[in-house]
Batch of 2 targets.
Target 1
Amino acid sequence: MSDHQFVLTLSCPDRPGIVSAVSTFLAHNGQNILDAQQFNDVETGHFFMRVVFNAADLAVNLASLQTGFTAIAVALGVGRVLPDLATHPTRWPYVVIGVGFALYGIALILYGTWSLRDEMGEPNAASRPLLGLAGVGVLLGFASVLLIVIS
C-alpha cells in the first residue's frame, strides 16, 4: 500500500445515499476509488462498506480526510469509521500523539488536583468526590496509553 493509499471501513444503519455520499466526498476531494465492497445485513438493518482509495493530490493527508468524513458520519449515523492504520507504515505518529495526549491529560489532572489540595488543605467531605474523579481520570489515562501502545 503506498503512502497515499487509504482504506475506509464504516458501518451504519442502512439507508439510501450512503454509497453516493462517500463516493461523492472522495471525488470532490480528488481521491480515486481503487476498490469498494459493501454489504447490507438484512437481519440487523446495518450497512457495511470498505473502500480503498488513493490520493490523486499528494497534499491531501489522512487527518484532512478524517475531518471531512466526520460530517458524513454524523449525517448518516455512522457507528464506526475506521481508517486502516494497522499495517500503514506511518502508524507511529498516531501512536506517539495518542500517548502524548493521554500523558498530558494525566499531568493536567494531577496538577489540578494538587493545586486544589493546596487551596483547600487536607481532603474533606467536599473534596473527596473531586479526588475520586481525578483518580478515575488518571486510571483512564493510563488505560488509554496501554491500549494505544499494545494495539
Target 2
Amino acid sequence: MLSQYIARKMARTKFKILGDGTYFGEVPGFRGVWANANTLEECRKELQEVLERVDFAQGEIEGTDLCPEIKIMRRLTGEILNDIYRLGARQARYREDGKWYHPLTKFPALFFDAYGYIEFKTKDAYQKCSYLQLGQDGNVIDNGISAIPGYVSLNPPPCKYKP
C-alpha cells in the first residue's frame, strides 16, 4: 500500500529544467521534498528515494484497514486525505477542528476535519455557502464544517490517522 501511495505522489511530481541545464523536481504537498540532477531519470530516481525517506522517517507502520502509511506521515494534510480516500478533488484542506481554512482556488475542492469532509463542486457553490465567512487570508466556519449540510462522515475518520 505504501508503494502505491508513493507512486500516486510521484505521478503528481513537477519537473523543470534549470538555467544550468540540470533537472529540478518537487512533489506537491511535501514541503522540502525536492531533487536536482543532470538527467530527468536521475532526478526522478533521486526524488523517489527522498520521498521514501520522508515517509519512513516517522517509524514503524502500524496496521489499519484503509491506509497504514498515514501512520508515518510527518503531517496530516488535505491533499494526503484526498489521496487516501480517493475523492478526486483538485484541492483539499485539513483542520482538525474544522473552523478555519486557507481559501480554495481550484474546484472541486474539499475541507476536511477530524471526522469527515465537505465538498464544494464549484467556485460558485463555495462562494455562496452561507456557513462560511470568506476572507482573503482564510475562511472561518463558526460551528465547524460538520454543521454544513452535505457534510460526509468518514469511516475510519481522518483523526484515526493523526501522526
